[in-house]
Design a protein that fits this description.
InterPro entries: 6-hairpin_glycosidase_sf, GH-type_carb-bd, GH92_a_mannosidase_put, GH92_N, Glyco_hydro_92, PNGase
GO molecular function: hydrolase activity, acting on glycosyl bonds
Helix content: 25-40%
Radius of gyration: 27 Å
Organism: Flavivirga jejuensis
Number of strands: 36
Distance between the termini: 74 Å
Strand content: 15-25%
Protein name: GH92 family glycosyl hydrolase
Subunit structure: Monomer.
Structural class: alpha+beta
Largest sheet: 9 strands, antiparallel
Length: 764
């Protein structure tokens, strides 16, 4: 009887929890309160649920802060399953795979003086941790200290609450690989620099920092490669400082911290961002800034789970690429060049990989933040001037990772979306695109590896000592399309325009009619043998042929024609979801995390945790069955995202996977950047209001939206019935009202005419 009663109570509680999660909230006052910076932190190298860390920062801030649970220099700086904190790190890490640069940490301690991370670390609990974008707090149990952090773009305030003790200290760790510290007791200040990096920096790279205290030092020690001494200045492989105090119970010690990639004087100047604000005032200003940005997309009629997921994804979409510029004494924008080591005028941004982010993050910035996007374009122009190349993966300078020449998409889409509204040197950028498209760079990931073969044969063959050649070919073809689009807009010669249009059709050279998929070739034109479309790697990048065969962003009609028409095309799309998640891993010699994430998702060969296939769901719109897009978009949003530490289904990757969700929530997605179109999915919420930078609004109404009603029955655009499967960027910028009538059954009469299909080059 007792067991039955307990079971009954459990059922009631479960039902109540489910009902609470299904209750829709009509109005969100402070969207930042819904952000969970811990979303995606329950990750490791074998299985990623985001591979994120809690970023405590301002939008696109030059400096981020994070609690550090991992060892010094380890890419997984913070993981949710960790139990001890080693310090609070200023970080510039874009991903654990890229690791960090310009890093140092601060750690409060009680008891004997301790510097080494494994000695000073403390147990902590998520129950005594508060993580928001603008404020972080945690209780360090071993030291009986509460640490609080609140940032600006280049500075921050720390607040430590100590117990009563005669042995209170604060460690400043400048990390190894070359560092310097100097204690200045009369100014209650420590200065220093760190040179630790993971590559992509000039020889003179340093991150200069300054730390100011509101409490006089009673003890001053420096750390020199394992030894503590009373000297106040040290330069070594691993330098650091410890300053000590006697504290009363509840005594608060405040720190002001800033850094610069230029020099100590500039670090002091950056400290002025704090102004006269005390900790609480700075915290409130940070909250206001985040609320202002997040409120640019208002949502209504969503469950708590959906709200948390949406605003956590929107937060992640507003972090990268980071600002890598500073303001000099006259207020001019200046930057340390991560390409040539000089101090130069103008904007610079970094820490993004275009292979990931050209797909949805940069189109999102072009829609919502065109002025900021223009600054980023100026930064890219500066990068070309300073290095001779456009970066494809910058962190902070050129890095040799991933494939493609996707800077072409990033540059072209930004200009084509805004044209001459913003003044930057688009001709210089066009020159950079042409240069990158026709030359091999100083490393395979810069310019186009295999460019001579691609330009001669129309594809990159797999027998020239280069891997992932099919992926390169497909991405080069799309990149040529974006150059073609930009060349037209800039009124280049007909010969030049036609060259890139012709090259954009090179994807056809790798289409295998036997498998109806893409397949690698050698330099003699012979197909890769043996061939399995389930094999990851080899001719493809972090995926297989089932993933990459859809990378014809600009000419889906051409791909449909190759496959034999709409029915065959749809059948292949359907196969992606219906096939078992089998795979071949011989190229890697084992199961990489991207493979495992596809395998466990129970979506067949669909691998949403990695970028190459994320647009594929939207392709049913090109073949007269848009309701299948509507089904799978909702399925992916519901199943692959949540606002918890396991909230992603793979690497979040600098806002790309988050921006996919943000776009999909609104009901449209940029399948083909460098065109005017977004392809329709279906909105998630009852109402979404998008506040554009020009003052206009996009209002998306779907009053009947719920868990069952995932299909579009009808759509009205500004009151007029609208049957197209795409939306115009230019028309949206004018302000628009989209009225969706949603249904639990697909409308198989809407969007089925060829005139309703999105753009394809073959239809020009």
């Amino acid at each position: 009887m007792e067991k039955s009663f307990i079971s009954f109570i459990i059922i009631i509680v479960f039902v109540q929890v489910q009902q609470a999660q299904n209750n829709q909230i009509s109005k969100i006052e402070n969207p930042v309160d819904w952000v969970n910076p811990l979303m995606g932190t329950d990750s490791n190298p074998e299985l990623s649920t985001g591979n994120t860390y809690p970023v405590i920062a301002m939008p696109w801030g030059m400096n981020f802060w994070t609690p550090q649970t991992g060892k010094m220099g380890h890419g997984w700086a913070y993981t949710y399953d960790a139990t001890k904190i080693k310090g609070f790190k200023q970080t510039h890490q874009p991903s654990p795979w890229m690791n960090d640069y310009g890093q140092f940490s601060i750690m409060p301690v009680t008891g004997k003086l301790r510097f080494k991370q494994e000695e000073r670390e403390s147990w902590f609990s998520h129950k005594a941790e508060i993580a928001t974008p603008y404020y972080y707090s945690v209780y360090l149990a071993d030291h009986d200290i509460t640490t609080e952090i609140t940032p600006t773009e280049r500075a921050s305030r720390f607040r430590f609450t100590f117990p009563e003790t005669e042995e209170a200290s604060i460690v400043i760790d400048a990390f190894d690989k070359g560092s310097y510290v100097k204690i200045i007791p009369e100014e209650q200040k420590i200065i220093g620099y760190t040179t630790r990096n993971s590559g992509g920096v000039p020889k003179n790279f340093k991150n200069y920092f300054v730390v100011k205290f509101d409490t006089p030092f009673e003890i001053s020690k420096t750390y020199n490669d394992g030894d503590l001494s009373s000297t106040l200045e040290v330069k070594s492989n691993h330098a650091g400082a410890i300053i000590g105090f006697k504290t009363k119970k509840g005594q608060i010690i405040n720190l002001k911290v800033a850094s610069s990639f230029i020099n100590f004087e500039q670090a002091e100047r950056n400290l002025e961002e704090i102004g006269n604000n005390d900790f609480n005032q700075l915290k409130e200003k940070g909250k206001e800034i985040w609320n202002a940005e997040l409120s640019k997309i208002e949502i209504e009629g969503a469950t708590p789970n959906q709200i948390g997921t949406f605003y956590s994804c929107l937060y992640r979409s507003l972090l990268f690429p980071r600002k890598f510029f500073e303001y000099d004494a006259e207020g001019n924008v200046v930057h340390y060049s991560p390409y040539n080591g000089k101090i130069l005028k103008g904007y610079m941004f970094t820490d993004t990989g275009f292979w990931d982010t050209f797909r949805s993050l940069f189109p999102f910035l072009n829609l919502m933040y065109p002025e900021l996007s223009a600054q980023m374009q100026e930064g890219l122009s500066n990068a070309y001037d300073e290095s001779g190349w456009l970066p494809e993966w910058a962190s902070p300078g050129l890095r040799n990772i991933m494939v493609g020449n996707n800077s072409a998409s990033v540059v072209s889409d930004a200009y084509l979306k805004s044209s001459d509204a913003y003044k930057y040197d688009i001709e210089n950028l066009y020159e950079a695109l042409v240069h990158g498209a026709n030359n091999e760079g100083p490393m395979p990931a810069v310019g186009r590896a295999g460019a001579p073969y691609y330009n001669k044969l129309g594809y990159v063959p797999h027998d020239i000592g280069l891997n992932e050649t099919a992926a390169r070919t497909l991405e080069y073809a799309y990149d040529d399309f974006t150059i073609y689009q930009l060349a037209k807009a800039l009124k280049k010669s007909k010969k030049e325009i036609n060259l890139y249009k012709k090259r954009s059709l090179n994807y056809k050279n790798l289409y295998d009619p036997e498998h109806k998929l893409m397949r690698g070739k050698d330099s003699k034109g012979t197909w890769r043998t043996p061939f399995s479309p389930y094999d990851w790697g080899g001719d493809f990048t972090e995926g297989n042929s089932w993933h990459y065969s859809w990378s014809v962003f600009h000419d889906m009609q051409g791909l449909i024609d190759l496959m034999g028409g709409n029915d065959e095309f749809v059948a292949q799309l359907d196969n992606v979801f219906s096939l078992p998640p089998i795979f071949g891993d011989k190229y890697y010699g084992g199961v990489i995390h991207e493979i495992r994430e596809m395998q466990i998702a129970d979506m067949g060969q669909y691998a949403h945790g990695n970028q190459p296939i994320q647009h594929m769901i939207y392709l049913y719109n090109y073949s007269g069955q848009p309701w299948k897009t509507q089904y799978w978009v909702r399925e992916t949003m519901d199943r692959m995202y949540n606002p918890n530490p396991d909230g992603y289904c793979g690497d979040e990757d600098n806002g790309q996977t988050s921006a996919w969700y943000v776009f999909s929530v609104m009901g449209f997605y940029p399948v083909t950047p460098a065109t005017d179109q977004y392809v329709l999915g279906a909105p998630l919420f009852k109402k979404t209001t998008v506040h554009l930078q020009n003052g206009n609004k996009i209002v998306i109404n779907a009053k009947d939206n719920n868990a069952d009603n995932r299909y579009i029955n009808t759509l009205k655009f500004n009151g007029t019935n609208y049957t197209k499967n795409w939306l115009s960027h230019k028309e949206l910028l004018k302000g628009a009202v989209l009225d969706f009538e949603m249904s639990d059954k697909p409308n198989k009469e809407r969007g089925i005419s060829k005139k309703d299909y999105p753009y394809s080059l073959s239809n020009e």
